[in-house]
Design goal:
It contains 19 helices and 15 strands. The protein is α/β, with parallel strands linked by helices. It folds into three domains: 19-183, no CATH class; 204-289, 3-Layer(aba) Sandwich (Rossmann fold); 290-471, no CATH class. It starts with 18 loop residues before the first helix and ends in a 9-residue tail after the last helix. Bound molecules: NADP nicotinamide-adenine-dinucleotide phosphate. NADP nicotinamide-adenine-dinucleotide phosphate is lined by residues 186-187, 190, 192, 224-226, 228-230, 252, 254-255, 294-295, 298-299, 467. This is NmrA-like domain-containing protein. Pfam families: DUF3431 (PF11913).
Length: 471
């Protein structure tokens, strides 16, 4: 930072932090009179990281579409997602080399809380397009109060001193600008916990205009409504997204591959999922569906009516003989898939997000049977079959019992039917990782260790895991 800036120019509040303090000082000084769009650039006319149109920044600016800034709110001027994506920093698990080298990566939890506030929940992984040149709309800047930007500047000037040098401050912000300007939608009165670094916009689901307003300027809407969300809410959200011009919607359909031809009239769950995908294709938006199979840790830990296991009592019900293989995914793999998908260029090269318009992004972690799960539990718990109460039940009986229980209002009849239908020998999609093309390689997803995932489920049970407490 120039220690003696020209007097007619804005002066940065801190001489630390390179472009970061200049950008933040501009926002703080002009917060109430910001132009509709702000474009933050490095000063030299040529930059190595200008990609599509050569090193001249002026060439990029000629190609920048303000419609794109309107749609995205925050738009990096670089398109190539390497370096930076999908993961640049693992704040909670730095490498030994980072610790030994006193790298900022080794101190990232303190850095993150200093920038986003002490209560901020530090993400497990951070990744974003590099190089700190971007356009941002006034509306997006205003989604944070001025006090947030002042806190960031104060961090640069004072609190960052024991953690990073001047260059390090610029590097830190380069990895975080997309988080500074990201937004999460939640409803009035939600009990959900959103990471504190993320700006939250409250919506009122009973007011369609409030939904449209909140969705304005968003490029990709991910819907993860819980099972207790009211019927019809999904369709109202997707309709509002269409009115707001959101180009992509990931509908609430995180299960198995599905097509209209494969769903029978008497299959209420299959028809519900088809409706949700159809809702997302609203004439303006395209759907991008993420079939990932059953969530492995979630389904193993939740109880007998799901994967047949009651881990704390060492009991398992094998469906038929327990050897039918199905496709499953861990939570981490689903999260990684979504992050990698959203790190792809929107279009113009391959792979691109647009390749998945109105299509499925099929991913997986494992192909496993209940027998494989029990063997993995043995390795994790140090048990053998003789320590477990193992019983057998035909899938046909399970489906019939589930339907009867559900008709009587017993909630757990539903998972019995849902999981039973996937373990049916006639289900052609249950082991889709063995029969259909996956997006794992396109998204750069890692191979995972089954026993590590099983251990997470065991730990969840030990910690009293129950997603349906109070139902
Ligand atoms: N593949 C699998 O094995 C598997 C397993 C479980 C779930 N899933 C899927 O994952 C998605 C999320 O399920 P989940 O169990 O994780 O959900 P959840 O945590 O129970 O709920 C997710 C969100 O839904 C909103 N919500 C909940 N109840 C609502 C209500 N009455 N009205 C309005 N909004 C409400 C809440 O958002 P706010 O409070 O922020 O508004 C909540 O944070 C669903 O699509 C589900 O089908 C898949």
């Amino acid at each position: 930072m120039d220690k003696k800036p020209e007097t007619e120019l804005l002066v940065a509040h801190s001489s630390r932090g390179r472009e970061a303090s200049a950008y933040l000082s501009f926002i703080v000084d002009l917060y109430d009179e910001l132009p509709a769009y702000s474009i933050f650039l490095h000063s030299n006319p040529e930059q190595w990281h200008n990609d599509l149109f050569g090193p001249q920044t002026s060439s990029i600016l000629k190609s920048l579409r303000l419609e794109a800034v309107d749609a995205m709110g925050y738009l990096n001027l670089r398109c190539t997602n390497n370096p930076g994506c999908p993961t640049h920093i693992n704040p909670n698990s730095p490498t030994q080399a980072d610790i030994d080298n006193n790298d900022p990566r080794a101190k990232f939890p303190s850095i993150y809380k200093g920038i986003f506030g002490d209560e901020a929940q530090v993400p497990e992984r951070i990744g974003g397009i590099c190089c700190a040149q971007f356009a941002v709309s006034r509306a997006r800047i205003w989604q944070r109060p001025k006090s947030d930007y002042i806190r960031m500047l104060n961090w640069i000037d004072e609190k960052s001193v024991p953690l990073v040098d001047d260059y390090g401050v610029g590097w830190v912000f380069e990895t975080l600008w997309h988080i500074v300007f990201v937004t999460a939608l939640t409803r009035d009165g939600s009990q959900g916990k959103i990471p504190d670094g993320v700006r939250v916009v409250q919506v009122n689901y009973d007011d369609d205009d409030s939904l449209v307003k909140a969705l304005n300027g968003q490029q990709f809407l991910v819907i993860t409504l819980g099972v207790r969300a009211p019927d019809g809410l999904h369709a109202r959200i997707t309709t509002a997204a269409g009115r707001a011009g959101v180009p992509y919607i990931m509908p609430n359909a995180y299960g198995y591959p599905i097509s209209p031809e494969g769903v029978k009239d008497e299959d209420p769950y299959g028809n519900l999922v088809l409706d949700r995908i159809h809702d997302a294709q609203n004439g303006v938006s395209s759907s991008v569906t993420l079939p990932c199979g059953f969530w492995y840790e979630w389904s193993l830990a939740t109880g007998e009516q799901w994967f047949g296991f009651t881990i704390k009592d060492r009991k398992v019900t094998f469906f038929d003989d327990g050897t039918r293989i199905i496709t499953v995914s861990t939570w981490d793999q689903c999260g990684r898939a979504l992050a990698a998908l959203l790190s792809l260029p929107e279009s113009g090269s391959t792979p691109a997000l647009a390749d998945f318009k109105n299509k499925e992004v099929r991913i997986n972690s494992f192909r496993v049977s209940q027998r494989d799960m029990l063997d993995s539990l043995h390795r994790v718990l140090g048990t053998t079959d003789s320590d477990w109460d193992i019983s057998y039940e035909s899938v046909a009986k399970r489906l019939a019992d589930g339907a009867e229980e559900f008709a009587k209002g017993v909630f757990t009849g539903m998972p019995k039917m849902l999981y039973g239908s996937v373990f049916l020998p006639s289900n052609k999609e249950a082991d889709f990782a063995g029969t259909m093309e996956l997006a794992n390689d396109i998204l750069g997803l890692p191979k995972e260790d089954l026993d590590e995932a099983t251990k997470r489920a065991v730990d969840m049970v030990a910690a009293g895991w129950n997603p349906f407490a109070g139902v």
